[in-house]
Amino acid sequence: MAISLKVNGATHQIDADPATPLLYVLRNDLALNGAKFGCGLGQCGSCMVMVEGEAVLSCVTPIMLLEGREITTVEGLGTIEEPGPLQAAFIEMQAAQCGYCIPGMMMSAQALLQKNPAPSDEDIRDALSTNLCRCGTHMRILAAIRRAGEVMQSAGMKTTTNGRTG
Ligand code: FES
Ligand code: FES
Asked: pLDDT value at position 1?
């Protein structure tokens, strides 16, 4: 039986075992390769996406729990031509080294900023505590998230249901 998944505003009928982790469906069925496979065990955060505004580890979330729910991946935050505030800030602050952890970092950060547009460093560290970066760019990542929060606030941007701002 097909499961209906709403990803970045588009609805897809997915014919897969309902126990399939969302991460595999995103990457293998929908060609959305932003979310990364790191550990597959819910321990690294590289597969993070948002489900209705909450940061969710897609490697341990079966699609049967997601029917009709609003899923946002890093691709939903902006495009190469028009990067969203978080994407632009990560570029501006040169927050990526290898980049593998960055989509997951951005999704945890997006979920945070939607709830708390002016987070303290402690708030950011708490929100990203499940995201690991092996390259150690943590300070630049913190700076990028602070910067994105400032940009969103000064532009008076509102977040929309698919996680984009405008
Ligand atoms: S791949 Fe999902 S937490 Fe590591
Ligand atoms: S930039 Fe390489 S793992 Fe974070």
From this structure: 76
